[in-house]
């Protein structure tokens, strides 16, 4: 195939288009994953191989970062007593379980 072969020209355009498509979906999937608190590198690879399927999966996935934050918030406000299982509200100055008196080492 020479430089003036029209087929070579079309092939180049198709290859460039596919490369741009794969890299843009990989980038978008990774970026979206990063925003939602998922592994951006892993999802970038998924985006590269699965294109829009990976992009939509991340797009409709729940916000991992947000749910994790919510969990920490609940854990911070209450301390579970290991002796009686009573949930003690975390307050300044409270170091012992209000039910059994176990040291909670807050
Ligand atoms: Zn207790």
Overview of the structural elements:
This protein is 61% helix and 6% strand. It has helices at 6-36, 40-50, 52-60, 64-77, and strands at residues 78-80, 87-89. It contains four helices and two strands. The longest helix has 31 residues, at 6-36. The chain is mostly helical and 106 residues long. It has a two-stranded antiparallel ribbon with strand order 1-2. The chain has two domains: 6-61, no CATH class; 74-106, no CATH class. The relative contact order is 0.09.
Can you describe this structure in just a few lines?
The protein is rod-shaped. It is built from 4 helices and 2 strands. It has helices at 6-36, 40-50, 52-60, 64-77; strands spanning 78-80, 87-89.
List keywords for this structure.
single chain, binds zinc ion, rod-shaped, 2 domains, two-stranded antiparallel ribbon, mainly alpha, 106 residues
Unreliable spans are 69-74
Estimated helix fraction: 55-70%
Helix-strand pattern, N to C? HHHHEE
Question: Measured on Cα atoms, how large is the radius of gyration?
Answer: 26 Å
β-strand percent reads 5-15%
Overall residue-averaged pLDDT value: 81
Number of helices: 4
The secondary structure category is mainly alpha
**Which ligands, by name, code or SMILES, are bound?**
zinc ion
Biggest β-sheet: count, sense, barrel?
A: 2 strands, antiparallel
Strand order within the widest beta sheet: 1-2
Number of strands: 2
- Count of distinct structural domains: 2
